[in-house]
Amino acid sequence: MTFAAKLFHELTAAEIYEILKARSRVFQLEQGIRCLDEDDVDYDSLHCFFEENGRVTAYLRAFPDKGKIRVGRVLTITRGQGHGKLLMARSVEAAREKFGSRAVVMDAQKHAEEFYRKLGFVTTSGEFLEEGVVHVKMELPSGQTVE
User: Fold this and answer.
1) What would the DSSP string read from start to end of the chain?
2) Residue 32 above 90 pLDDT?
3) What's the CA gap between 73 and 87, in Å, rounded?
4) In the prediction, which pLDDT does 147 show?
5) 144 Cβ contact partners less than 8 Å away, ≥ 6 residues apart
6) Residues 51 and 4 sit within 8 Å (Cβ to Cβ)
7) Is the pLDDT at 77 greater than 60, yes or no?
8) What's the pLDDT score for residue 7?
9) Which of 32, 52, 77, 120 is exposed most, by the fewest CB atoms within 10 A?
């Protein structure tokens, strides 16, 4: 399993295809989210992922947003093996190297709130619906690393 953190223009066609395939599998097929996944944010994002045998097994994107780093589209295909925690730790480090040491924010699905809390994120909002799924806003303060 290898980690990569690449801007959009650095991705190969095969990597883009595997990223989109993983996002479709998790968000559309497994979670039933119905929205246009390709929202043009990908062009300005750092794409962080683990790859094994040519397949994306964990992924997120990060991009600058109002003086902070926003993380989204977080997924793991291989679950229960610690890949989510490792993905978050490596990705936060890579995003801060690329965009500067800033706070990291995200709209986390409510069911994953405790997972992110254990990594050091703090809930900063009440619950809200996004694409029909309950979310909360969370933040990892500037300078704090994923635990």
Assistant:
1) -EEEEEEGGGS-HHHHHHHHHHHIIIIIIIT---S-S--SGGGGPEEEEEEETTEEEEEEEEEEETTEEEEEEEEESS-SSSHHHHHHHHHHHHHHHHH-S--EEEEEEGGGHHHHHHTT-EE-S--EEETTEEEEEEEE-TTPPP-
2) no
3) 12
4) 81
5) 120
6) yes
7) yes
8) 97
9) 32
pLDDT reported for residue 101: 87
Identity (one letter) of the amino acid at 11?
L
What angle is formed at CA 46 by the lines to CA 118 and CA 48, rounded to 5 degrees? 50
Report the pLDDT averaged over residues 86-109. 95
HSE (side-chain half, CA atoms, 13 Å) at 2: 8
Point out which residues pair with 60 in neighbouring strands: 48
Q: Using 50, 70 and 90 to split pLDDT, how confident is the model at 37?
A: low
Query: In whole angstroms, what is the distance from residue 96 CA to residue 13 CA?
Result: 25
| Average pLDDT of the segment spanning 85-95 | 96
Q: List phi, psi (to 5°) of 132.
A: 80, 5
Quick check: 30 pLDDT over 70? no
